[in-house]
Amino acid sequence: MAVKIRIRKVPGLWTVRSGGAVLGETSNALELSEGDLPPVIYFPREDIAMAFLDRTDKVTHCPHKGDANYYSIVNKSSVAENAVWTYENPPEALAEIKDHLAFYTSDSVKVEQI
C-alpha cells in the first residue's frame, strides 16, 4: 500500500528558533503530512538565516521523497547536530519541498506559529 503524502501551504507566520536566536520567519511555510506521521513544517530556504547552519555529511534516503541532506545548527550557546534536513532533488510529485528546510524540534529548537 502506498503512503499518502500531502503538501499544503499553511496560513500565518511561522518561526524557528534555536538557543535564543531566531533562525527564520516565514509566511510561506509548507506542511507535509505523510501517512500516520506527525505533520512537518518546511521553511523556504530564503527565509532562514543560513549563517547559523553548517552542512554535514549525513544523508538518509526515503523511498517516497528521495535523499535528505542535513545541517547542524550552530549558535553561541549550542550546536544541534543534524537538526535540519532538506530534499534537494525530490521526485516531481513533491517538487514543492525543493529549496525548503525542516527542523527536528527539541528543547533547544522550536518551530511555532506566531
From TrEMBL:
Alphabetized InterPro entries for the sequence: DUF427, DUF427_sf
A Pfam family per the record: NTP_transf_9
Domain DUF427 as annotated: residue spans: 15-105
Alphabetized Gene3D superfamilies for the sequence: Domain of unknown function (DUF427) (2.170.150.40)
Descriptive protein name: DUF427 domain-containing protein
Organism expressing this protein natively: Antarcticimicrobium luteum
